[in-house]
Design brief:
By secondary structure, the chain is mostly beta strands. It has a single domain, classed as Jelly Rolls (Sandwich). 12% of the residues lie in helices and 34% in strands. Strands 1, 2, 3, 4, 5, 6, 7, 10, 11, 12, 13, 14 and 15 form a 13-stranded antiparallel β-sheet that branches. A two-stranded antiparallel sheet has the order 8-9. The longest helix has 16 residues. The protein is globular and about 55 Å long.
Length: 271
Amino acid sequence: MKKILFIIAVALLSLASCTDKSELLVPYPNDITFNELTLASYTHNIPSGGFTSGAVRFNTIKRGDGTYSGFAYSNQNNRSFVWTDTKAARDTNIMSVYTAYRNMTEVYAVACADNETDTYFTIDKPTVVEHILFANNTYNYLAMNYGANSGTSIANPNIPSAPKAIWNTYAPGVTRKLTNDGDYYKVIVKGYNGNNLTGTVEVYLCCRKGADPANPAFAFLRTDWIAANLTSLGAVTKVSFTTSCSYKDVNGKDLINSYFCIDGIRLKTNQ
C-alpha cells in the first residue's frame, strides 16, 4: 500500500511540475476564495452595488471619484514602493496584498472599512464563520513599516538590483513608523444575527508591546495571511468591519487608512 501511495504522490508531483504556475495552492473545498470572480492578470474591480462569492454577499459603495467603502476584489501583489506620487501608483498599492513571498491566493477582497455602515457581508441564513484570512495591503504596510521618507535615496529591499531612489508612502500625515510600544493597527469584526449583535473580535495586523491587553508581549507587523477564529461570534447573518489604530492626528483621526485584505472565509457546514 505504501508503495502505491508513493507512486501516486510522484505522479501528482510530476503533474504539478508541468503546469504553467511555478507553485500550486490547493484551497479548502468549501472556503469562500473569490477565485470564481474573473479578473485579467494584475487587475482589480470595484463593483457598483457589491458582489457575491459562494454563499456570501459583499457590500460596496462606489463613489464618483473612484474611492469606495466596503469591498473590492483584486489579484494584485505588489510588495514594492510607490516611486511617484500618482493616482495610478497609489491605487496599485491600495489594491495589492502585502505578503512576504509572491501571493498564492489568487483573487482576494480588499476592504475599505472607513465606516461600519457600509463595510459588511451578509449570509442568507444564520451560519457560524469558522475563520477568515486577513492580511495588510501594501499601502498600509509601507506606511506602518517605513513611515515617511521624502528626501533620502534608499534601496528597494524587494528588488535588490534596482537603483536607489527617493521614496515616500504618500500616506497623508504619516511621519513615523509604527514601532513604538503601544502602537497598533487592528480590524474590529462584529457579528449580527438579524439586528442582534452576537459578538466582537479584534484582529491585529500591527501590534507592538503593550498594545494587546490579552497579549502584552506581542510585537509584530503582519507580512502574510493570518487566520482569525470567528467562532465566538456564533451563528450570524451579517459580519461588519471597522479599523482602529494608535497613530492619530491632532483631531483624533486615524492616520493609517482603513484598508485590509481578506480571503479564505470558512463557513461551518454541519450546523
